[in-house]
Design brief:
heterodimer; A: alpha+beta; 9-stranded mixed sheet; 5 helices; 9 strands; globular; B: 136 residues; alpha+beta; Lipocalin; 2 domains; 9-stranded antiparallel sheet
Chain lengths: 269, 136
Amino acid sequence: MASILSACSDSGDQPADAAQSSSAMPPQEMARETPRYPDGTVRFDRVPGELGFWNNPSKHSLVENGVDVAMDERGKLANIGDADRVAPFMPWALALYKYRQANDFADDPVNACISPAGPRHLHYTGGFRIIQDRNYDRIYILFGGGNRGWRLIHMDGREAPNPDEVVGTYYGHSAGHWDGDTLVVQSSGFNDRFWFSNGGLPHTPALSLVERFSRPDYDTLEYSVEITDPRTYTRPWTASWTMDWIEGGEIKETFCEEIEAIDQYTGAE
Amino acid sequence: MPVSRGEVSAMKFMSCSAVLLILLSLAASAQEGYPLDGTWRGEWGQPGGEMTMAVVVMNWDGEAISGRINPGRNMTFFEQASLDPDTWTVRFTSTSKAGEPIVFEGVLENIGSYNRTISGTWTIAGVDNALTLTRE
């Protein structure tokens, strides 16, 4: 499968001049230019012959833009008193968030091998790749963390579905389009069987996302996500962070096989 | 009738596979959103007396908790329902098909667990009965 996807990524297009210039060693203080396809479309994955993936998120959990709170890499707050600043929670959601923080994420579905889906994948360890399958108008995001899952974004003009009209899934139903150099992805149709953020922020099947991916230079991925869930949050809100291009690297093969964790999660003995 | 070692191994494999599938199916049906959403079941009655099954289905739409008691021929709907997240106290009222007022008040426990519970008092026609509802 990796070879097929690699072929999709490098589907015969040659990199534009920016990619070619990447072989020359620029001064370290100068950002390398964004790699592009010959038609000018931003390339989010490798140029032919290159290895690499995205990782090192600048933040570790969803936090509303403009709010600065201290937390560790799992999204655990340094001060639980900051909880109500993280997002515009409804009272039940704030209480559940605090509960999860207080019990040190003991009930995190990830402990039972359930995927850290939604935006959480972009925070999770292992990194990811964004594969542009231009032949079939699709984009795949391949995740190194969790169960090395993958996500499909349709680029054929369709719209994200009404959440009430589809069976919810872990990755939701995603439709993307270009806004200049920014990839805009609308997603809905999630189930609520996973945590969509480190730190235990809740959501319901009413969740919908508008994600924006951009690559302002060769080594930086800018990401923002607008979260709308009228059953969990009092208004739509946005979180943003950046990730680094890990040149020469490869996402690792990781699978979860913690059956004991499933016992604990389900209460089985 | 003697059983060969190979047959024993096959039986062990099948048993382990069945257990694994059950565990995975339980994990896959867990629900992490609004903690009351879903189907709950329990039995109420006086100590030593006949117990009566109660099945309660709750749903949060972002503004209110709606609910049904004993879906089927004798189903009744919630008249009022609330969740106090400071204490995780759940309260709902209804009226039975026989016209008896129903009030339930309990506390949500093991919130993060697949088999979370609400333990409290089911009052019907003015009589208090202990009831623990377990989410299915």
